Amino acid sequence: MMLKYPFVTEKATMMLEGENKLQFIVERNATKQNIKRDLESAFGQEITGIRTMMTMKGEKKAIVKFADEKAAEEILSRLGIM
């Protein structure tokens, strides 16, 4: 699995509430297709877009947008974060 853990900060929470997006720290060699496949199989939600970037700590971060409006909140509640 390419996902390491969800990345939850104040800014990430604002993105969750306003844009239905979640942030995850992923393996450095993860591609957008790998991330999409892992997330869709793990949570059963359709993904409409993925952006990736490298953090200042050298980790790869993926910002994921879901098709369903409540999918991001549902996933975080399943993980026990919200």
Automatic annotation (TrEMBL):
The keyword rRNA-binding belongs to this UniProt entry's keyword annotation: yes
PANTHER family xref list: 60S RIBOSOMAL PROTEIN L23A
Keywords linked to the UniProt accession: Ribonucleoprotein, Ribosomal protein, RNA-binding, rRNA-binding
Gene Ontology molecular function terms on file: rRNA binding; structural constituent of ribosome
Claim: Transcription regulation is one of the keywords in the record: no
Coiled-coil annotated spans: none
One GO CC term, this protein: ribonucleoprotein complex
SUPFAM superfamilies, sorted: Ribosomal proteins S24e, L23 and L15e (SSF54189)
One annotated GO biological process: translation
Family: Belongs to the universal ribosomal protein uL23 family.
Name of the protein in question: Large ribosomal subunit protein uL23
Function: Binds to 23S rRNA. One of the proteins that surrounds the polypeptide exit tunnel on the outside of the ribosome.
Quaternary structure and partners: Part of the 50S ribosomal subunit. Contacts protein L29.
